[in-house]
Amino acid sequence: MEHSAQTQRAQAPCTRRGRRRISEAMLAARDELTTPVPAEPGKRDMLNMLKSLRGVLPVSRGAASTLIIMVEKTSPDAWTALETPFIYAHNTTLMSWTGLSRSTLQRHIRELAEARLLVPQDGRNGQRGRRWQAEEGQTQVGFNLASLRYRWPDLLALSAEQRRLRQRVSFLRDNIASLNDTVRAQAETLGLEPILEQAVGIMRSRLRTVQLGTLEGLYREMLALSAALAGQCAEPESGPDNAPVENAVFSTSYPAEMRPMGPQNGAHYTDTKNIQTSKKVDHVAADGGIRIERMRCEGPSSGTDRSSVYDRTALRGFKGTATFYLEICSSLRDLCSTGRPSAEQLIEAAEYLSGQVGVTCHAWSQACVVLGRLQAAVAVIVMASRLERGAVIRFRDAYFRSLIERGARNTLFLDRSLYALRDHRTREVGMLAEAGVSMAAVSVQGPKMRASWI
């Protein structure tokens, strides 16, 4: 046992406490600094690139966050030509910047050095002593961030790959949403509740993942549901029965010409009625059920049934003017350039307002896909109006995403919220009128402005 322990001790690398272990990747990154740089991006460009690739860099997310903080602490002039971005901070300063422990900070530095994203430059005899900004002709001690310039082409390629991935994810989500509209319409027509529940589950799952394999599987499931419903609607129908309609209950009691008529026994058909121009019997009751099923499969022939279209939207046919939305949401007025904005201008203002009320850009884009741009804007306006009136929404982004899920399940009723806000606004105006405040001071619409429906 003693001999084996001595052998292991002799084979182990000779390191002292505080001395950094140098790997081949770290040596290659150090030698790389003596070659011409392929690009010289600015500090802002480098920060935007690292933040966009935080989760896909060849290091952990914590190490990527540490690198971003180190880049933020450098001077913008250090990223210009003939300059070197360098960090001279001591470990305690880095720990105060990042909020990490010493061991975690050292592990992150090790990851970044192995990935050749920075080069640690140590002091005398390779010791990691106190770092300082050396004078001319002296060795600088700290972390050299110039390696990021050599990684810039790789970062650009990785960014382009991620952009293509996001486009593919958006394409699959849009296709699933378009198929969902068809599947839900056909399933509601046929009364197939299980298929409706499956479509709702697929729509929920598509918003919770960004993996291409998972989204492709969800798209195939939705495509299978659409094909199954299309097959049921296109089933071959049996031809009309040419046999005369007989009431079996009275087949022995009465002859065919004398059978009684009534709602329980069906209509009385006869070919001896001499007031008709033709004696041919039209068998309506015999194939009436088949014709009804055919009409159900065909669905609405045109968009004339406006009530059914409105029932599938979150607004439920509510028509509000631009002035109405500006009146119920005072924060929206500062974002509109005119007192009578168009629908597109109102949507753009609501997009800016979404960031102010705590809705992320990703949640806004999801709402535009699921609800549509106009209904997403109205949802943001309703949320901002509630906040203005003292409503407490702790997790605002999660609250907005819950509205999106309710819209996907067709259980979001924005018209009820808008009616309530209208009544609340009416009460406010009434109270102001009682207090003697002029209506011109509280009204956004001018005396000669005409309201336009949105």
From TrEMBL:
All residue ranges annotated as the Plasmid replication protein C C-terminal domain in the record: 323-423
Record domain Plasmid replication protein C N-terminal: where: 20-183
InterPro entries: RepC_C, RepC_N
Protein name: Replicator initiator RepC
Species whose genome carries this gene: Gluconobacter potus
